[in-house]
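Appendix B. Chain record.
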Amino acid sequence: MRAPLRLMVLWLCVGTLSVPLAGQPEAEPETAPRLVFEGEPLVLPLECWEEDLLRAGLVCNDVTPCSLVMELVAIGNLGDRVYVMGNVHASAGTVSSVLLASDDRGRTWTEPLDRIPGGSLEIFRAVDEKHGWIGGQQWEADTSPDPFMLSTRNGGERWTDRYIWDEEDRTGIVLEFDFENPRHGFLIIERTDAEGDPFELYETRTGGSSWNIRGFSSEEPEIPFDPDAGEDRWRLREDLSSGTYWVEEREGNNWKPVSSFVPKVGACNNMERKYETPRALTLD
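C-alpha cells predicted for this chain:
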C-alpha cells in the first residue's frame, strides 16, 4: 500500500501554529525554526528521522554516520513571498524534500511544510499572487518515483498535496507543467515503468486537483499553450567556486545577492523516531 505524503501545514500569516491534517492528533503549537541571513551562508537544520533514513536505504550510527546534503533546484514567488526548493539526500538515496520561504526579500527563511519523506520538489509555477503549484516526486528506496503536486490558492498560507494517479503500481517523473489561469493547465510525465511510449500529457480544468490523460508519445511533448514569459524577479545561482547556493533579486538589469545556503546539512550518527506510534493520515 502506498504511503501517503506526510505534509504539515503552517499558517504563515500567524507564523507559529501548525494545523493538523485530517485524522492526525492535535499537536502542541510550536515556533517554526527561522534562518536569518547575516552574511554567512545558511545551514539547513539537520533531521535524522528513522523512517525517512530507512526509506532512503540508510542505516546511520556512530560507526557508519550518514552525511546529508541539500540540493536546491528551483525558485519562485507568490507576490512578495519567495520560495526555494529541492531535496535532502545522501549518496544512497533521497531522504526528504525541502521547501524554504521568505517574506522579507530573502533575509529570513522558514520551512512552511514538513519535509516529505523521499520527496524532491523540482518545479514551481504561479499565475498570480495567490495561485501557485510545485511539482516533484516521492522516491522509494528501490528508486521507484511517484509523481505529485502541491498547490495553493491563498498565496502559500496553506498547501494541498495530491498524487497524480490513484493507482499504486505506476511510477514516473514530473518533467514539466504550466497553467494559463488558476484552473487550466497541462502536465508532462515520463513513465519510468512504461513498456511502450514513455511520455504522457495530462490536462486539468480543476487547478490540479484531478488530471485527465491527453496523449502518449515516444518523444517529450510540448505544453499546448505559450507559457507566460514574464520577467523573472528572482533567481537561484549555484556558485561552484564557493560551493554555495545564492538567492538573487533582480534590480533593473542586474542581480542583487540577498541570501546564500551551503549544501552540507550535517551527519546523522543516530536515527530518531518521530512518532512513538504509527499515525494513519487521510489527506484532502
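Further analysis of this model is presented in Appendix C.
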